[in-house]
Amino acid sequence: MGAAAHIHSVEDARRLAKRRLPWMVFDYIDGAAGGEGGAVRNRAAMDAVTLTPRILRDVSDRSLSTKIFGTDAARPFGIAPMGMCNLSGPGADLMLARLAAQYKVPHGVSTVASTPMEKIIEVAEGHAWFQLYFSGDGAGTFKLVERARAAGYQTLVLTVDVPEVGRRPRELRHGFKMPFKIGPWQFLDFALHPRWSLGSLAAGKPQMANFEMDGYAFDRTESRARATWETLARLREMWPGNLVVKGVLDVDDARRLKSEGVDAIQVSSHGARQLESAPAPIIALKTIREALGPEFPLFYDSGLRSGEDVLKAITQGADFAFFGRALQFAIAAGGEPGLHKLWDVLSDELSIAMAQTGMTRLAREANG
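Request: output the structure for the sequence above.
Response:
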């Protein structure tokens, strides 16, 4: 029996991933900022959202499909941008891209992806969005924007909640750096996880593939603090497609973003990886929806652990949701079969929750 058969929930995938991944890699994927109180608070807030069962309704014919920016999607959830996904398993970026193509959902391609953006959008059959970090003086950032446009990306996601990279003690204790620097502790860690190590060795060390271009060397620790509203205005002027701003928790910021002409806002705390004291995004989501009205597209990520969580996000005002580290856990646990098994679990959980609450169609659609 393959490992995928043992995945019945996100927690199952996480437990298996923890067993199989080197400690350094697992803690990079799983860790949060500071003492990780933000992650605990996020989960508590999500758990506190309730869904009311409704009875004696014909819910035999249910659909999980929706629209996002006017395009059909087979699920109301997609793939959040995540850096260095190939650490979870060789070829993980392309596993996610194939999943996006199959279900016609967005695959967020991180600035620090370990596969070139051109290859990912090709394998995703166009169902890919490019996520952008502003860093340094912005020269390299705008080169990446031009490259994404040339590659055929129609949606650009500007992440704004990382003016400085958050301190994540679990990473620091293991000496996690990009690119890798392997010392005695890391060597021991890899030696004790031979399945991952041999597979990664055969595939080649993961690289930050989008920076293999002339005139740009990426430093993960470089300050991103120079981004301003003028930066956003410049991006809006140069980007003809959909512009999403990700990492928004403040109502006044959300109102201004709408007035500045962005096409959607993604409510997110970066998975509690940035500011430990940030408010729970699921609470901010409801407040922002009330402020912006029913029509403006709002997306959601951070702390989703089930299909039922997706329905909670939709009831709180999200048009579309994104899973992050949960998908990496599934890949680490069971490779591509594990990823598809967890995707089916999430889909089943959402469908069952819809039936329990009397829904046959999703209440919101991100038409853009």
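The mean pLDDT is 93.
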